[in-house]
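Quick one:
INPUT:
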């Protein structure tokens, strides 16, 4: 069941990539599949280590550039975790994130009240707000019990 859901995401990714005119290579599919198969918001290095197992000639630079391309095209999103490296998310459904300030684990937050903040039609300073994503911080249960 889970692998069917991941394959469905991969198929949508392939279709959308073709619509956007980007080449669909086995390496790009593997990178996206690694990202789509987890809710852990992996870093580039984490994805690279997993991909390297079955694409030993792939470079870390290729993974960085591929993820950057996917993000620019709106195929994935970037979650900037406090002061650490970017983490990636294939889930494009509206949601927010919470990060543990101790272990840096990132989790999705689905809370309708957070989607209804009345800022989308406001101008803040020189900016016209078009949307928002919240990054909450706290200490997870595991870190609190240690």
């Amino acid at each position: 069941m889970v692998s069917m859901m991941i394959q469905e995401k991969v198929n949508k990714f392939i279709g959308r990539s073709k619509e956007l005119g980007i080449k669909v290579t086995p390496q790009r599919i593997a990178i996206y599949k690694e990202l789509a198969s987890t809710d852990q918001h992996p870093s580039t290095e984490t994805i690279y280590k997993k991909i390297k197992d079955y694409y030993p000639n792939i470079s870390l630079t290729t993974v960085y550039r591929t993820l950057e391309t996917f993000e620019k095209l709106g195929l994935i999103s970037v979650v900037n975790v406090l002061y650490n490296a970017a983490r990636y998310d294939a889930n494009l459904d509206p949601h927010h994130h919470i990060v543990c300030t101790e272990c840096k684990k990132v989790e999705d937050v689905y809370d309708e009240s957070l989607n209804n903040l009345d800022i989308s039609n406001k101008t803040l300073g020189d900016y016209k707000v078009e949307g928002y994503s919240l990054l909450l911080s706290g200490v997870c249960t595991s870190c609190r019990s240690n």
